[in-house]
Design a protein that fits this description.
The chain has about 325 residues and is α/β, with parallel strands linked by helices. Helices cover about 45% and strands about 15% of the residues. It has helices at about 5-20, 50-60, 75-85, 110-125, 145-160, 185-195, 200-205, 210-220, 230-240, 245-250, 285-295, 310, 315-325, 330; strands spanning about 20-25, 35-40, 65-70, 90-95, 140-145, 170-175, 270-275, 295-300. This is AB hydrolase-1 domain-containing protein.
């Protein structure tokens, strides 16, 4: 990995560490499915069994927020601006999706539903993988961006169907620039916009030209100049690695033909956040997703941002997110 990318990665990892998160990994099934993740240190230690200490720990337990990243660099790059503000009020779990970074599996499925099943196994292991989740039930909110939003939909459903057996209960769901209603015609339109034959050539770029096309579509105001050495380093580290697997992830996204309940409303309260000038999933898709998810869904549009709204205007994004997840008095007393 080039020096510049290493330096930026170290900066984001430091932001995670400063927010109280620590790296971990867990094998979550018999097929060697291994998830690497970051989690608050309180979730990585066994709860105290001492009476007074256990009572104090239980009283101090906070709701959990799971942040699910999309395609692109390491999740520390994608959620670096969120972990600090969120960590003041929640215990965080930030998984690295399969075939991104070191997370991998020997299992055959490559769908977004399988990604969600792996995360669900991490969260509902009776404390085997996250000891701090053992014991009393915890409220858990799910936030997913782009492809991670598709995974978040499946995760919310998976955890809801096992609510009586696990340690977590899904509270709220946040979907950021995630087109749950995406179809083949949308992929074709995006490919045409990016000047490629298939959408996989854009979302899993193989060379600098394709990477620059992707950046131009993802960001409302893309940088005027990205040095060639930085593009090469980013491609080598985050896009060339397991590229064929990433292409399969795109091709095996679950469709309504495969799952008749896919587009049915979720039982949770849902916030849909979208960038006003998203060129990957146009902003009108936000309202289609709301129609699909029903009365419990609301839409917030972030002005002057594109597909990476949470990175382009993190202050507004974090304000919207916290106002949705926190009770109003907590926001008024310094949630920003």
């Amino acid at each position: 990995m080039g020096f510049a990318v290493s330096l930026i990665s170290a900066m984001f990892r430091r932001m995670f560490a400063s927010a109280g998160l620590r790296p971990g990994s867990a094998v979550v099934d018999d097929d060697g499915t291994t998830l690497h993740f970051w989690a608050h240190s309180s979730l990585l230690i066994l709860p105290s069994k001492n009476g007074a200490a256990a009572a104090a720990a239980a009283a101090g337990r906070r709701p959990v927020v799971v942040l699910v990243h999309g395609f692109g660099p390491d999740p520390t790059w994608q959620w670096g601006a969120q972990v600090g503000p969120l960590s003041r009020h929640f215990d965080l779990v930030v998984p690295t999706l399969l075939f991104f970074g070191a997370s991998t599996t020997r299992a055959a499925p490559r769908s977004d539903a399988f990604q969600a099943a792996a995360i669900a196994a991490l969260l509902t292991s009776g404390g085997a993988h996250l000891p701090g989740l053992g014991g009393e039930r915890r409220e858990l909110h799910i936030v997913g961006t782009s492809y991670g939003g598709l995974v978040a939909r499946h995760l919310a459903r998976a955890l809801s169907t096992t609510a009586g057996d696990g340690q977590v209960e899904v509270g709220k769901v946040v979907l950021c620039d995630a087109d749950l209603a995406k179809g083949a015609e949308d992929d074709a339109a995006l490919a045409a916009k990016g000047g490629v034959a298939e959408v996989t050539e854009l979302m899993a770029p193989a060379d600098g030209k394709a990477f620059r096309r992707l950046m131009a579509l993802c960001v409302h105001r893309p940088p005027k100049y990205i040095p060639d050495f930085l593009v090469r380093d980013l491609l080598r580290k985050y896009f060339a690695d397991k590229r064929e697997e990433k292409i399969r992830l795109i091709k095996e996204i679950v469709t309504e033909e495969q799952d008749s309940q896919l587009n049915s409303p979720l039982p949770q309260e849902i916030l849909i956040i979208w960038g006003e000038f998203d060129q990957i999933f146009p902003v009108e898709k936000a309202h289609k997703v709301k129609e699909m998810l029903g009365e419990k869904a609301t839409v917030k549009i972030i002005p002057n941002t594109g597909h990476l709204a949470h990175q382009e205007d993190p202050k507004m994004f974090n304000d919207i997110l916290l106002k949705f997840l926190l009770p109003s008095p907590a926001v008024a007393n310094g949630a920003k």
